[in-house]
Write a structure and sequence with these properties.
It is a single chain. The chain contains 5 helices and no strands. The protein has helices at residues 2-22, 26-41, 45-70, 74-100, 107-130. By secondary structure, the chain is mainly α. Helix 2 runs antiparallel to helix 3 (45-70).
Length: 134
């Protein structure tokens, strides 16, 4: 029983690290999924929808990289970073809600944990976007 508990804690921690690492890519991923769903529902098929989603996600990330390379104003760069970090905060909220759904009986405390987790993931993505890479 102790081994299962420890394994679940390690897996949850691993998921959180993965979420914090990939939080920057939440907006391109969401746009790719939305484009793939649209393409699938309009008759593109499974492979065609996957290709459309992949192209949309790569294009969204390319726009992010292009904007960060061309914009020099710190305010404009912050606005672009906020646009890309907001879906990361939503994804962090959903991740914590999924983890705490069965383990936290109080709805108030679950919402507190979800808001804290979403804020932490959103701020992590914002810091990753704003800080220049060496």
């Amino acid at each position: 029983m102790v081994a299962v508990t420890l394994m679940s804690v390690v897996l949850i921690a691993g998921l959180c690290v993965l979420a914090y690492t990939l939080a920057v890519y939440a907006l391109p991923f969401m746009l790719g999924v939305a484009a793939a769903q649209f393409a699938y529902h309009t008759g593109a098929g499974f492979i065609g929808a996957g290709l459309v989603g992949l192209v949309a996600a790569v294009a969204a990330f390319g726009v992010l990289a292009l904007l960060f390379d061309t914009l020099r104003s710190p305010i404009l760069r912050l606005i672009v970073a906020l646009v890309f970090a907001t879906p990361a905060a939503v994804a962090g909220y959903a991740l914590v809600h999924g983890v705490t759904k069965e383990s936290v009986p109080s709805e108030v405390w679950r919402q507190i944990f979800c808001l804290a987790g979403g804020s932490f993931v959103g701020m992590s993505a914002l810091v990753q976007l704003i800080m220049p890479t060496e």
